[in-house]
Amino acid sequence: MTYKYEPYPIQDWFDHIYKVGPDNKPIPKRDASGAIIYNPYTGYPEWEAFEEGSRFTAARMNHIESWLAKAHTGIFEMDKSLKKILAQLVASDRVPGNNGIFADAFDGTEGRLIRLKAMTDVTESITSGTTTIPVADAAQFTAMTYATIFDADSYEHVMITAVDDSANTITVQALTSDYSKGAKVARSTASVDTENQTMDVAPFVTYNIEFVEVI
Q1: If DSSP codes are grouped into helix, strand and coil, which group holds residue 8?
Q2: Choosing a second label site near 120 at 20 to 30 A (CA), which of 11, 48, 105, 132?
Q3: What is d(CA 197, CA 104) in angstroms, rounded to the nearest whole number?
Protein backbone atom coordinates (compact mmCIF):
# COMPACT_ATOMS: atom_id res chain seq x y z
CA MET A 1 0.00 0.00 0.00
CA THR A 2 1.38 3.41 -1.00
CA TYR A 3 0.43 6.45 1.03
CA LYS A 4 -0.99 9.33 -1.02
CA TYR A 5 -0.61 12.78 0.49
CA GLU A 6 -3.84 14.73 0.92
CA PRO A 7 -4.12 18.17 2.55
CA TYR A 8 -6.05 18.03 5.82
CA PRO A 9 -9.40 19.88 5.55
CA ILE A 10 -9.49 22.04 8.67
CA GLN A 11 -12.74 22.34 10.60
CA ASP A 12 -13.47 25.68 12.26
CA TRP A 13 -14.59 25.54 15.89
CA PHE A 14 -16.28 28.43 17.66
CA ASP A 15 -16.62 29.26 21.35
CA HIS A 16 -20.06 29.66 22.87
CA ILE A 17 -20.08 33.18 24.34
CA TYR A 18 -22.94 34.07 26.68
CA LYS A 19 -24.38 37.52 27.15
CA VAL A 20 -24.08 38.79 30.73
CA GLY A 21 -26.43 41.28 32.40
CA PRO A 22 -25.57 44.13 34.79
CA ASP A 23 -25.56 41.63 37.66
CA ASN A 24 -22.84 39.59 35.85
CA LYS A 25 -25.25 36.71 35.40
CA PRO A 26 -26.25 35.09 32.08
CA ILE A 27 -29.34 36.57 30.46
CA PRO A 28 -32.11 34.01 29.88
CA LYS A 29 -33.82 33.79 26.52
CA ARG A 30 -37.48 34.80 26.44
CA ASP A 31 -40.29 34.10 24.04
CA ALA A 32 -42.59 36.68 22.43
CA SER A 33 -44.69 36.88 25.59
CA GLY A 34 -41.63 37.55 27.75
CA ALA A 35 -41.59 34.10 29.43
CA ILE A 36 -38.22 32.41 30.00
CA ILE A 37 -37.48 29.63 27.55
CA TYR A 38 -36.46 26.36 29.22
CA ASN A 39 -34.51 23.53 27.65
CA PRO A 40 -36.97 20.63 27.32
CA TYR A 41 -34.28 18.05 28.13
CA THR A 42 -32.41 19.64 31.03
CA GLY A 43 -35.16 21.82 32.47
CA TYR A 44 -32.68 24.71 32.77
CA PRO A 45 -33.17 28.10 31.09
CA GLU A 46 -31.73 28.79 27.64
CA TRP A 47 -29.23 31.69 27.68
CA GLU A 48 -28.69 34.58 25.31
CA ALA A 49 -25.36 34.36 23.44
CA PHE A 50 -23.15 36.73 21.45
CA GLU A 51 -21.84 33.67 19.52
CA GLU A 52 -23.27 30.19 19.16
CA GLY A 53 -20.54 27.64 19.81
CA SER A 54 -19.72 24.65 17.60
CA ARG A 55 -21.70 21.52 18.34
CA PHE A 56 -19.80 18.41 19.45
CA THR A 57 -21.20 15.92 16.93
CA ALA A 58 -20.47 12.44 15.60
CA ALA A 59 -19.82 13.92 12.15
CA ARG A 60 -17.05 16.17 13.49
CA MET A 61 -15.45 13.37 15.51
CA ASN A 62 -15.64 10.95 12.57
CA HIS A 63 -13.87 13.57 10.47
CA ILE A 64 -11.05 13.71 13.04
CA GLU A 65 -10.88 9.92 13.41
CA SER A 66 -10.67 9.29 9.66
CA TRP A 67 -7.79 11.73 9.29
CA LEU A 68 -5.99 10.27 12.30
CA ALA A 69 -6.19 6.89 10.54
CA LYS A 70 -4.72 8.42 7.36
CA ALA A 71 -1.92 10.04 9.40
CA HIS A 72 -1.18 6.67 11.04
CA THR A 73 -0.92 5.04 7.60
CA GLY A 74 1.45 7.77 6.44
CA ILE A 75 3.69 7.33 9.49
CA PHE A 76 3.77 3.53 8.98
CA GLU A 77 4.74 3.92 5.30
CA MET A 78 7.43 6.44 6.22
CA ASP A 79 8.81 4.07 8.86
CA LYS A 80 9.11 1.28 6.27
CA SER A 81 10.97 3.58 3.90
CA LEU A 82 13.31 4.74 6.66
CA LYS A 83 14.15 1.14 7.58
CA LYS A 84 15.12 0.44 3.98
CA ILE A 85 17.25 3.60 3.81
CA LEU A 86 18.93 2.83 7.15
CA ALA A 87 19.72 -0.72 6.05
CA GLN A 88 21.40 0.68 2.94
CA LEU A 89 23.31 3.35 4.86
CA VAL A 90 24.59 0.93 7.50
CA ALA A 91 25.83 -1.42 4.79
CA SER A 92 27.33 1.37 2.67
CA ASP A 93 30.99 0.90 1.65
CA ARG A 94 31.54 -2.22 3.78
CA VAL A 95 32.26 -4.44 0.79
CA PRO A 96 34.72 -3.16 -1.85
CA GLY A 97 33.42 -2.92 -5.41
CA ASN A 98 29.72 -3.28 -4.71
CA ASN A 99 28.88 0.39 -4.19
CA GLY A 100 28.29 -0.44 -0.56
CA ILE A 101 24.76 -1.84 -0.90
CA PHE A 102 24.28 -5.52 -0.18
CA ALA A 103 21.60 -5.71 2.51
CA ASP A 104 18.16 -7.21 2.11
CA ALA A 105 15.53 -4.65 3.12
CA PHE A 106 12.89 -7.43 3.42
CA ASP A 107 10.43 -5.53 1.25
CA GLY A 108 10.34 -7.89 -1.72
CA THR A 109 12.81 -5.95 -3.86
CA GLU A 110 15.85 -7.72 -5.29
CA GLY A 111 18.89 -7.43 -3.03
CA ARG A 112 22.47 -8.61 -3.14
CA LEU A 113 21.92 -11.07 -0.33
CA ILE A 114 20.18 -14.23 -1.55
CA ARG A 115 18.17 -16.17 1.00
CA LEU A 116 18.62 -19.92 0.54
CA LYS A 117 15.09 -21.25 0.25
CA ALA A 118 15.84 -24.95 -0.35
CA MET A 119 13.45 -27.02 1.77
CA THR A 120 12.07 -30.53 1.55
CA ASP A 121 10.13 -33.07 3.62
CA VAL A 122 11.52 -36.17 5.31
CA THR A 123 9.57 -39.07 3.78
CA GLU A 124 10.04 -41.64 6.58
CA SER A 125 10.40 -41.48 10.34
CA ILE A 126 14.08 -41.52 11.38
CA THR A 127 15.80 -42.20 14.68
CA SER A 128 18.79 -40.68 16.40
CA GLY A 129 22.06 -41.96 14.98
CA THR A 130 20.70 -41.96 11.41
CA THR A 131 23.11 -40.63 8.77
CA THR A 132 21.08 -41.15 5.58
CA ILE A 133 17.86 -39.18 5.40
CA PRO A 134 15.16 -40.03 2.81
CA VAL A 135 13.62 -36.82 1.48
CA ALA A 136 11.06 -35.76 -1.11
CA ASP A 137 13.52 -33.73 -3.20
CA ALA A 138 17.26 -34.11 -2.62
CA ALA A 139 18.23 -32.23 -5.80
CA GLN A 140 17.76 -28.85 -4.07
CA PHE A 141 20.78 -29.50 -1.83
CA THR A 142 24.53 -29.54 -2.34
CA ALA A 143 27.17 -31.57 -0.55
CA MET A 144 29.39 -29.82 2.02
CA THR A 145 26.75 -27.27 2.95
CA TYR A 146 24.82 -26.87 6.18
CA ALA A 147 21.09 -27.37 6.70
CA THR A 148 18.64 -27.61 9.58
CA ILE A 149 16.37 -30.59 10.24
CA PHE A 150 13.36 -29.90 12.45
CA ASP A 151 9.90 -31.06 13.41
CA ALA A 152 7.42 -30.08 16.13
CA ASP A 153 9.65 -31.46 18.91
CA SER A 154 13.32 -31.15 17.90
CA TYR A 155 15.78 -29.45 15.59
CA GLU A 156 19.51 -29.56 14.86
CA HIS A 157 22.00 -28.16 12.38
CA VAL A 158 23.80 -30.70 10.19
CA MET A 159 26.40 -30.71 7.44
CA ILE A 160 25.29 -32.44 4.27
CA THR A 161 28.21 -34.59 3.19
CA ALA A 162 26.58 -36.28 0.18
CA VAL A 163 23.48 -35.96 -2.00
CA ASP A 164 21.89 -38.77 -4.04
CA ASP A 165 19.41 -37.25 -6.47
CA SER A 166 18.20 -40.58 -7.88
CA ALA A 167 17.52 -42.15 -4.48
CA ASN A 168 16.35 -38.83 -2.98
CA THR A 169 18.58 -39.12 0.07
CA ILE A 170 21.01 -36.81 1.79
CA THR A 171 23.86 -37.96 3.99
CA VAL A 172 24.70 -36.12 7.20
CA GLN A 173 26.59 -36.75 10.41
CA ALA A 174 24.74 -38.92 12.94
CA LEU A 175 21.54 -37.25 14.14
CA THR A 176 21.11 -36.61 17.86
CA SER A 177 17.28 -36.78 17.90
CA ASP A 178 14.39 -38.74 16.43
CA TYR A 179 12.31 -37.07 13.70
CA SER A 180 8.84 -37.86 12.43
CA LYS A 181 7.77 -38.36 8.85
CA GLY A 182 7.10 -34.90 7.43
CA ALA A 183 9.94 -33.24 9.29
CA LYS A 184 11.66 -30.49 7.32
CA VAL A 185 15.21 -30.23 6.03
CA ALA A 186 15.95 -26.61 5.10
CA ARG A 187 18.85 -24.34 4.23
CA SER A 188 17.01 -21.49 5.95
CA THR A 189 14.29 -21.79 8.59
CA ALA A 190 13.34 -18.12 8.25
CA SER A 191 10.39 -16.56 6.47
CA VAL A 192 10.29 -12.96 5.29
CA ASP A 193 7.33 -10.72 6.13
CA THR A 194 7.49 -8.04 3.41
CA GLU A 195 4.53 -6.14 4.90
CA ASN A 196 6.29 -5.47 8.23
CA GLN A 197 9.80 -5.91 6.79
CA THR A 198 10.89 -8.51 9.31
CA MET A 199 12.50 -11.93 9.15
CA ASP A 200 10.64 -14.48 11.28
CA VAL A 201 11.12 -18.10 12.25
CA ALA A 202 9.11 -20.29 9.90
CA PRO A 203 6.51 -22.32 11.84
CA PHE A 204 6.25 -26.10 11.79
CA VAL A 205 2.58 -27.08 11.81
CA THR A 206 1.07 -30.46 12.64
CA TYR A 207 -2.49 -31.61 12.01
CA ASN A 208 -4.73 -34.30 13.50
CA ILE A 209 -6.83 -36.08 10.88
CA GLU A 210 -9.80 -38.26 11.76
CA PHE A 211 -11.36 -40.57 9.17
CA VAL A 212 -15.13 -41.04 9.30
CA GLU A 213 -16.99 -43.63 7.27
CA VAL A 214 -20.03 -42.24 5.52
CA ILE A 215 -22.72 -44.70 4.48
Answers
A1: coil
A2: 105
A3: 10
